[in-house]
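Hey, quick one: can you model this chain's 3D structure?
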Amino acid sequence: MQPDIRKAVGASARTAKPQPLIAITTGEPAGIGPDICVALAAQSASSLSALPARIVFLGDRTLLADRARQLGITIAIRDYQPASLPEPGMLDVVHVPLVAACRAGALDPANARYVLALLEAAADGCASGTYAAMVTAPVHKGVINDAGIPFTGHTEFLEARAHVPGVVMMLAGGGLRVALATTHFALADVPAALTRTGLERTLRILVAELTRRFGIAEPRILVAGLNPHSGEGGHLGREEIDVITPVLDRLRAEGMRLEGPLPADTMFVPTRLATADCALAMYHDQGLPVLKYASFGGGVNITLGLPYIRTSVDHGTALDLAGRGGAETGSLLAAINMAVEMVQATRGKLPEAGAPKAGGA
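Sure thing. Here's the predicted structure for all 361 residues.
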């Protein structure tokens, strides 16, 4: 199912203007991924064409053309041509064929393999150097699992495909950066998943990537406790005493700038955030509600620790909006902008990428 991207894309050196090439996966075909991709490309005279990068969309060209017509969007869709820059309002596509016909809003497990083929093509293109970064539109975890394919999320899928020892999920937006010590676990399973080894690995990745990808020389990180009041001296749980504090003490002795463990209910106050570059929450719904309250519709999901740059929208497939014209493109554009800035920072062109510190710009 995976296209030969080496033939389809070719070397970026043959483009009219050598620029980093960013791959956009169009996501779950029944969701709003195709909608926001065609809508954003139609706005390219004021958005994509102004970027110091070239954008290529990975997906089924017929699906994208049909969705554009359904939405009343006038857009030209063509196969990606390395030597020819697109005109405003033109969508360059690396064609990956659907497995089954698709109707907006109607999930079909038969297309789960198609969704994963998009991710594989983008990830392999990044690994080979064809793409400078990948940006992902939303997928639907449930329908992929319904197809008999175990799938926890983009983060874990890309970690396994890249064969790296660990990755970190971080969201940015609304003046915040929030990373997670554990990702997609049931709440009852979080304490067992929070280990000294895992937390130390997370913090090492987070510090290294904030330096490498964002140009922050000595990142300052706020670290939450797991329990209310950070365990209240062991009366409300011992994870702070047995796991979190020993790790922080060890890494602080190496020179890392870590504050915590802090009670989560007071960690996100302006005075603390103003002095930090990132906040680390212990589990998904401890930190992300704060981030999404501050930035929903314009936030960016970032996977740190991969050998390449990956960003994503901060929302889901919104099946009820697919094909109806109500989907917003703000988060996708923010994710593309973030990917471009991270490419520039990694290549040494910026002192720091555009995402603000944890407490503001």
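One thing worth noting: The chain has two domains: 1-163+307-328, 165-305+349-361.
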